[in-house]
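User: Hey, quick favor. My workstation is busy. Could you predict this chain's structure for me?
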Amino acid sequence: MAKGNGTRIEPTFDGPPRGKSSDDFSLDEDDRVIPSPRKRPPAGRKTTQLAKTRVDAKARTSTRRRGLRLGRLVYWCCVLMLWCGIGLAGVVAWYGAKLPSVADWSVPDRPPNVKIVSTDGSLVANRGMTGGEAIGLHEMSPYIPQAVMAIEDRRFYSHFGIDPIGLARAMAQNVVRGRFTQGGSTLTQQLAKNLFLKPDRTLERKVQEVLLALWLEHQHSKDQILEMYLNRVYFGSGAYGVEAASRRYFGKSARDVTLAEAALLAGLLKAPSKLSPARDPQAAEQRAQLVLGAMREEGMIGDKELVNAMSTPATRAAAFWTGSENYVADRIMGELPALIGDVRTDIIVDTSIDLGLQKRAEDSIRRLIDENGKKLNVSQGALVAIDDAGAVRAMVGGYDYANSQFDRASEARRQPGSAFKPFVYLAALEQGSRPDSVRNDAPIRIGKWTPENYNGKYYGRVTLATALAKSLNSVAAQLVMEVGPGSVVEAAQRMGIESDLLSNNSIALGTSEVTPLELTAAYVPFANGGYRPDVHFVQRVTSAAGDVLYEHREGGAPRVVSAEVVGMMNAMMAETLSDGTARKAAFGWPAAGKTGTSQNSRDAWFVGYTAKLTTGVWFGNDDGKAMKKVTGGALPAIAWHEFMAAAHEGQKVAKLPGSWQAAPDLVDQSVPDTATLTEPAAQVPETAAVSQAAKPVPATRAEPETVERAPRAQPRTVEQAARIELEPADEPTASIPGPRPKADVGGPAVKSQTSILDIILGNGG
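Assistant: No problem, here it is.
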């Protein structure tokens, strides 16, 4: 073959080998040997092998591609996670920067609690924002922390403030259900939220909650965190902390809570207001059973305990704190600022309340209303008991504190009726009258006002002692005209009445309104010999550390009535129980008192006393509706009897202070026994009457006149009794319309028309 230049090159087979090039052609030794023919595989086998090769190649290619894709995915996931981490760190830093400096972080003090206790140290009530005191984890029932951890945070003692497992489970549940059903927060996170943050569902709050939870775990032990949580968390119905909730729902301390009760408390944490047994006991019970199941799963209780707790029936709690002692607690909370200023730490208030007597008083009031409420149309009652030193031993402010927190004992002003008459007689005795002084009980007219006796009965000539025991309105009106209304007002206020009193003639029948507490307090000087003590509920206030913040000082009570007059008043009012309108009140001790019934039986009273205790009782209706012929000698006297018999059980009988004996040959002639009085003593200027009453006047006269003593009075009809007309001087004939007096205490409505002279003398409304 020739090259491009036309030269022919012949092949050679011998000679030295030449270097190979693209232009040479040569054969080596192997090329001279003809190879043996190879066996061809069958056509089908060749096709299968080729197909397999191709499949393997494709598989290897697919695997390589998947690997590349997975690698890329991992790579980008790492990148994404890195950026998410950077973003999360930025968010944490941003929201964390809004918190105060870590150096300033501290657990805030728990809102102060006011623990109010009775004379024997029993709890009366807790007051304050929490509604209960804080107690140690070791003090409370062990079922409580177990139940709370079982339903709220099972890994509490193993996590570091945040529970990743619980958080993941909660997120999965929320995704599956398509809505927010679980939060995944630990108890530490919940405590952090309660202590430092608002309950807003925001990213900022969640981030700050996590940071604070980590800080709490670093600063405090698990037991400390759990104790803080249980003493601060809200359990519904105004109760913060397990002690307040236990008192609120079960009427017992958290120290004594049973397994079933602990499960109910733990179940409330999910929705305290909705699940409260005061609102929905069935829902609370169903939730409690879930808690018990969780406790069994965690091995905290056995099968027998589970069955027993599951069988506990659901019970509705009162809608509000119940028990009449809460009226006392409210009163004390109103007095504390004046005694110790603002409450800034936990304090203990030792009261004068005898909790046993308090319960006895409440039971008596409630029982009488339950038995007679519908029949006699009476719905409310109040009772106050005060000892000789002014310490309030019991106070019931109404039928049921849970339904009405209004305190009828210290806040409600009602007409006392004839229960006010002792102050009229006191003023008369201080101006010279005596228990055996005689007045003519007969229909009387003062201007256009004609006060009537109960049932229209009149007794003719009677002593003042008989007139007071039988609550004769006619005689009381005469005495007011004699001594002047101003003297009566002064005497009542000197004894302890603090409400405003109208200085008019109708004050004889108790038309000015007073509270049961102040009316009862005004009787105490009769019981203790003439001294007006400082009426009080609080004996001592101490801090939780034992520092005395306030202590009531005994002694220093001023004398407000002479011992001689006290003796005469006690002798007269003792007849009320022995032969007067309060015979149902007698219980075997020397006692005295006075009944009272306002117009149309709107209010019924009995205030009585022994040498040890003074007690006042009131029955009526909040809306002022009339009861059905209920008088002070009925329900009030019965309640007084029951309470006083219990209060004096086991005590040595003591006589009332003072004494008085009527001289058989002496009788007072200071008031004429004729049928007409033309110049009533009320015409004396009021200022002179007040100044004279301010200084007690001996009851005995320097030169007594001897006349026959009045015989025991017998009831007489209006026609048989002599009529007494008190005609004020210069009475005009014209009259103008005006309001009627508010009450005819001890009898039917006062019949009256207001004249110009009535207005001048103060006889109107």
